[in-house]
Amino acid sequence: MEKIRLEGDAGETVELFVLESTRLMGNNYILATDTEQGDGDCYILKECSAGSEDEAVYEWVEDEALLDTLLSVFAELLDDVDLEG
Predict the structure, then answer these.
(1) Which residues, at least 6 apart from 28, have a Cβ–Cβ distance to it below 8 Å?
(2) Residue 84 has what DSSP assignment?
(3) Most exposed residue of 3, 32, 61, 75, measured as fewest CB within 10 angstroms of its CB?
(4) Class of residue 36 by CB neighbours under 10 A (exposed 0-12, middle 13-18, buried 19+)
């Protein structure tokens, strides 16, 4: 499972494990969790990188309507995983 590291503005670092990725309306999104196995919190992030950057840049998806749409998409892609909104 791919692991990503997010660095916040205040210098804190969060490590997440990528469960799935998708493309919607011309944007790339990932579904990530804070634990490699078992139950954990899931997060949906939008890739904001320019094509020329060496590292991907992500931002948290906060729009409720978009979150609901993406949660449905990821639920279909991961039919063996129970996703709760």
Answers:
(1) 21, 22, 46, 47
(2) -
(3) 3
(4) exposed
Two tokens at 65?
Answer: 């309507």
- Output the pTM of the full model: 0.83
- Which pLDDT value is given to residue 85? 53
Contacts (Cβ under 8 Å, ≥6 apart) of 65: none
Residue identified by tokens 């590292």 is 55
Cα–Cα–Cα angle for 25, 30, 34, nearest 5°?
Answer: 155
Provide the percentage of residues in the chain whose pLDDT is more than 90: 53
Domain locations in the chain? 3-77
